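[Structure tokenization] protein backbone as discrete codes

[Encoding] learned vocabulary of local backbone shapes

[Begin record] amino acids and matching fold tokens:

___
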Amino acid sequence: MKGLSGLLALSAVLVISVPVLATEIHVMSGEAPKEVFALLTPRFEQQTGNKVKFTYAVITALREKVAAGEKADVLVMPVQVLDGLEKEGKVRADSRATFGIVGTSVIVKEGAPRPDISSKDKFRAAMLAARSVVHATPGKTPSGNHMGKVMEQLGITEAMEKKVIYDGGAQLVAAGQAEIGIYPTSEVAHVKGLTIVGMLPAGIDFNTVYGGAAVADSGAPDTAAAFVKFMAAPENRGAWKDAGFDPPGK
């Protein structure tokens, strides 16, 4: 009996001392939440012992990756895109969460004159008066698609053709290489050297609702779902707000 007791005690020690293997998950996301994830992911990793790697790309590129079968555990995209993927059975409905709403801001270089964008007509005049304007490429991102439609709606597509720059992002404005930029607030809120003039005016304003979901065939379904839940937790709302995201129910 004494030998058996000793064996059982040794077995218990061995079981307790076996380390729990950390899981690494792959998150594919649009660019808008990048700053939030940079802040919150280390906390998630510390609390859970798991690791997270990211792939950031424009939404059209992410959709192409998913369609091509590229493996991921979590997708972070505009909710309407996730809705379609859920219908296709590619993400789990029970793992979804909405992270926040991001508007579209007009920016200039810090210290530069602020154009009047208080109405559609004023915004139109500001576009025509600008030497150069940078925004996302139509067909690549939701905000890029929207801006293409706005220029058409305002009847200035042709006039803006030689002024609009699609590559370089907000950094072009900070560097003085573009006079005006138009991007999701989350992508410009903390870029040094910029001033946010304001949001796109009523009638041409544009908001994107971002959410996340675990992929249906994830190899780490529990960790993937836990990541989404963590990012949407009330105690993390401040990080989203600081990055330019309004609460989902606003």
User: Anything to note?
Assistant: The chain has two domains: 21-101+208-246, 104-199. The chain has a mean pLDDT of 91.
